């Protein structure tokens, strides 16, 4: 396996995926500064060797270092979607919001909010509980979301992530 990573292009791709978990193939290509054919070939080699994992999510493939846990991979898939990231961050900071409250706070259409909430429920990133006639949502592992965002903050070009990490840093001890 170390022989595979001795090849400079594969090492570069492996390092990009390690620093940007959940990156798509096109993201890896852009970040590594390579042509698409070269990127696709080496991603396949690294995946076949068991150094990377490729997971299908929606209409794209996500790439992860093989050592990343299933739960973290699911969270990163949600965090790589800007809308799901916003929902997950909001529910981490303000649990027990209804669909209407989420829609209003994020200024999204009801259908968009509903679609992404269903995606997050399916990935077990959030959970919904009935409270009378309303269903309220919360992040399942808000502290882990904060830890992942803090650890991989540079892989998200998003001021919302910066503010979230800053707010949670005090609670996480640093």
Report a brief summary of the structure:
The N and C termini lie far apart (36 Å). By secondary structure, the protein is α+β, with helices and mostly antiparallel strands. 60% of the residues lie in helices and 15% in strands.
Can you describe this structure?
The chain is of the alpha+beta class. The chain has 2 domains: 2-67, Orthogonal Bundle (Arc Repressor Mutant, subunit A); 69-174, Arc Repressor Mutant, subunit A (Orthogonal Bundle). Helix content is 60%, strand content 15%. It is built from 10 helices and 5 strands, in the order ααααββααβααββαα. Strands 3-5-4 form a 3-stranded antiparallel β-sheet. A two-stranded antiparallel sheet has the order 1-2. Helix 3 crosses helix 4 (36-48). The chain is elongated, with a radius of gyration of 18 Å. The termini are far apart.
Strand order of the largest sheet: 3-5-4
Shape: elongated
Number of helices: 10
CATH class of the largest domain: Mainly Alpha
Q: Kindly name the structural category.
A: alpha+beta
Query: Percent helix among the residues?
Result: 55-70%
The major pleated sheet works out as: 3 strands, antiparallel
